[in-house]
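We now fix the convention by which a protein and its fold are recorded. Think of the row as the fold of the chain written in a discrete alphabet. Here is one such record, which you should read through line by line.
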Amino acid sequence: MKLFDAHFHVIDTRFHLEANNGFIPDAFPFASYENLLTSMALKVDGGAIISGSFQGYDTGYLQILKELTAQYPDRKYVAIANVKTTASDADILALAQRGVAGARFNLFRGNGASVTAIADFAQRAYEVAGWTIELQVNPQQLADMVPVLTQIPRLSIDHVGMRKVSIPTLYELADKGVKIKASGFGRLDFDPWPVLVKLNDINPKALMFGSDIPGTRVAHKFEKADIAHFDSLFDDTAQQRILHDNAYDWYINQK
């Protein structure tokens, strides 16, 4: 089975990089990503390139999408960009034409946008370009944000909510149709597997696999054993949804 990788980063020094809390990652171009998957005997059907905090609001790296379309015409790739909530409708459309399928807000690492401003932007971006909104949340604030978050037409939460305190709220959000990324396991302070099983039980369409490659700022990075763990916990139908179909439908078929 091919994977659809709903969360990975490309760190290409041809394009702008900036420090976030003093951190600038090592280079990790798409060729390194492809080589790593090949070394694990994993094949992808495409994926979502996620803007990192170290890329700021620069979108020069979107050139990579054009290159991938030419190199891998049988795959489908999109980008999720860091976008200011003040971006104009014309800005949103211009990014969409370059392959951007949504905006990411990293509340965990100090993005200054308020959740109300994000929700207002989300509605406008959805009406203009059908965009999704992706949040790396501050777990301590997640429960309080639910009334506003559930107003967002298309929403996903990164890295299983990051912290144990967020788990009950994740269950509530999944039940309301929010996507949860099964990614970033090295960033968590809890065992994700029982949580993933329950999330899948609550909403079989909620979970979207992401490798989080190259795994910046974490000790435990994605490894092939993570895929084997899915195999041990989920039947073939559930695996197909989690590892491919849910994300492919979300990003490519927009449903």
Remarks:
- The first strand starts at residue 3 and ends at 8.
- Residues 3-251 form a domain with the TIM Barrel fold (CATH 3.20.20.140).
- Strands lie at 3-8, 44-50, 76-82, 100-106, 132-136, 155-157, 179-182, 207-209.
